[in-house]
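JOB MANIFEST
job_type = single_chain_structure
chain_count = 1
residues = 345
[input]
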Amino acid sequence: MTMDILTERQSKILELIIDNYINAAEPIGSRTISKRMRNKVSSATIRNIMSDLEELGFLYKPHAVAGRVPTYKAFRYYVNSLSSLMVPGKKELKVLESLARPRYSYVEEIMEDASKALASISQYTSIVIEPKVNMMLFKEVEFVKLSKYTVLVVFITSSGMVHERIVHTDEELGANALIEMKWYMNEKFSGVPFYVLRDGILGDVRQDKEVFNDLCAKIRDTLGAIIDEKNKREVYIEGTSKMIGVPEFSDLERLKELFQTLEKKEKLIKLLDSCLREDGISIIMGHESDLKEMRGMSIISSPYRVSEDSYGFLGVIGPIRMNYSRIIPIVNYTAKAVTNILRIM
């Protein structure tokens, strides 16, 4: 939608209608808008402008004698017109700055705290999703022998994320073989993405690398399985109960639909993966997604980075009637804070 489709006065009145609807969740009439404009524009003129906005698809009447309500098109226009230089308020900033304190030992703690902070500040549901494994950087591997033919393989990423898998071997491997295998992988592959690690091991298997051949093949298969689990990333969701008091979800069936949507984590990951830009804020409004349960809802999300090519994302899920000018900078700042923490771990 082009940004010059409305006149300055139309844009101003539409903005006032949206601001009022965000705060009150009720239709608004021309007299209310006139008062908001300190009676500089008459109610009759505003009624005419509102009628024009309705014809253009920006407003609709939920009842025959009621005021108007902004449409999806109106909210999209409104969001597109917001400045990219918005910053969180002082209270929000104080809470978010606590995330930057260097007290974390595990990545999971960061994800949990970021999710809790977003839900607490926004008063909506938050979501934090870990990065895809294939682009995470491999740091080191540990082997724990569980039995003669069973080894626990612990993959550790550069940001401290841990992926554990049990590997069953065809031949018994002694302690020295495991130590040598650990040294080989850590020395040769530390700092490379997991998909490079998998392909590198495959190359060594093809060269029939002595005693490591069987274990290399098993590890390669294990890495392949981890990488192929694209939609099985860890998802941290907080604040689902905060939706109970939201007018849009006062209907129990609608609230039930919302909770069912939040349980479909794989679908949420797929939705955000398909819409997420590599940098900056992405906003998905209900009708813009394939999830019918998303009608009446928006997701404001942003990527956070573990490395140049490895990123996850976080955001806030709420009604279309969210206060975007307040929530967008909160999500943006949180993503930057998480990125900074992960890069110094």
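[summary]
The beta strands are 59-60, 69-70, 125-129, 138-147, 150-157, 162-168, 235-238, 282-285, 297-305, 311-319.
The first strand starts at residue 59 and ends at 60.
exit_status = 0
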